[in-house]
């Protein structure tokens, strides 16, 4: 006998399919029909869970964000109690950068979503709140507590992500740039 | 009597239409037919100049890049002879940021293209060369000549562009973050 359908599970199945389509072929290939085929369900089923492409996109991004948060939490947990501020920031940012195959797939979806929200600013409300919260947190960890320096560090992280996905920077170049920035913010490693 | 068709002019007319479609409705709305309608020409005409969407995208990006270069050249020319390195970098980066309506439209196209190349890395060859050249130039202007610091500054610029387009940062916040970064790289204004 079929058990009760787990709606959250099915939404996630469909969102995963969307992300595979977006990661393989780009956002412009994402359609209800294409996602249904990839998920192995009917187009009607997809429409039952997501009335519009916007809804589906927003849900996919929320899945990506949730996974990022889990990665950050796990990486920070591995640092043990009371890590040094510089190491804490480096660990968080490295966990958010698209440095391996998994995070690259998520990064492509996030970048596609950013390009999407650039023409539909209302879809970016959640992003704005997330960025504001992260800026305040980073500022609280910096020696200067400077909000503009924190905003700059987050922008640097975002730009490194874009350049990693586009192949302009290698993983090594991106991490070197991150370390150079932390040198500027915290003083060189010898004094940190 | 109709004069000889100016092919470059017609390609630019079509690329402009593509950019209006991409800026208004996002990259996924860009199709040969849609662009033809916007440009007021036939779909066959568009196909005569651009065999594929990839070709059309690459040409549109080259138009955006050309316009950026003109903006940078003009802004630098206004500085007069031998500007201070810090002022030179600030002027170049500010000219490249999407701070007004015109540059925002171009920025949306560039961001859409970045999302596009993240799934088609071969399309990004030109971008990679451009970024490498710009990194070398920025390093030559920095007091430390440090390539990683230069790579970080460019990533920060790219991230500021993304956050400006998504509305996460206001123009003022983005310029404050840029100035904070230049303080870090050149010392505070009092010592610059």
Provide a descriptive summary of the structure in words.
The structure is a homodimer of 192-residue chains. The first copy, chain A, has 192 residues and is mainly α. The first copy, chain A, has 2 domains: 1-51, Arc Repressor Mutant, subunit A; 65-191, Tetracycline Repressor, domain 2 (Orthogonal Bundle). Chain A contains 9 helices and no strands. Chain A has helices at 7-25, 32-39, 43-49, 53-77, 85-96, 101-119, 125-141, 147-166, 171-186. The longest helix of chain A has 25 residues, at 53-77. The radius of gyration of chain A is 19 Å and the shape is elongated. Chains A and B meet through helix 1, helix 6, helix 7, helix 8 and helix 9 of A and helix 1, helix 6, helix 7, helix 8 and helix 9 of B.
Question: Can you tell me the CATH superfamily of the largest domain in chain A?
Answer: Tetracycline Repressor, domain 2
- Largest chain interface and its two residue counts? A-B, 54 and 54 residues
**Radius of gyration of chain A, rounded?**
19 Å
> What is the CATH domain class of the largest domain in chain A?
Mainly Alpha
Content of β-strand of chain A = under 5%
Number of helices of chain A: 9
- As for the number of domains of chain A, it is 2
Order of helices and strands of chain A: HHHHHHHHH
Distance N to C terminus of chain A: 62 Å
- Strand tally of chain A is 0
Alpha-beta classification of chain A: mainly alpha
Instruction: Please tell me the CATH architecture of the largest domain in chain A by its name.
Output: Orthogonal Bundle
């Amino acid at each position: 006998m079929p058990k009760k359908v787990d709606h959250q599970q099915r939404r996630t199945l469909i969102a995963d399919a969307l992300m595979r389509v977006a990661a393989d072929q780009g956002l412009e290939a994402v359609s209800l029909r294409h996602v249904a085929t990839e998920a192995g369900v009917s187009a009607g089923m997809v429409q039952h869970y997501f009335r519009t492409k916007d809804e589906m996109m927003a849900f996919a991004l929320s899945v990506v964000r949730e996974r990022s948060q889990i990665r950050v939490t796990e990486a920070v947990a591995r640092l043990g109690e009371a890590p040094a501020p510089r190491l804490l920031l480096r660990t968080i940012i490295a966990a958010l950068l698209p440095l391996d195959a998994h995070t690259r797939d998520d990064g492509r979806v996030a970048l596609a979503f950013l390009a999407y929200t650039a023409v539909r600013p209302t879809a970016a409300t959640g992003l704005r709140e997330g960025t504001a919260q992260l800026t305040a947190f980073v500022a609280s960890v910096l020696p200067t507590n400077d909000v503009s320096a924190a905003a700059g560090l987050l922008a640097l992280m975002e730009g490194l992500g874009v350049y990693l996905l586009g192949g302009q920077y290698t993983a090594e170049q991106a991490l070197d740039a991150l370390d150079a920035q932390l040198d500027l913010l915290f003083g060189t490693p010898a004094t940190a």
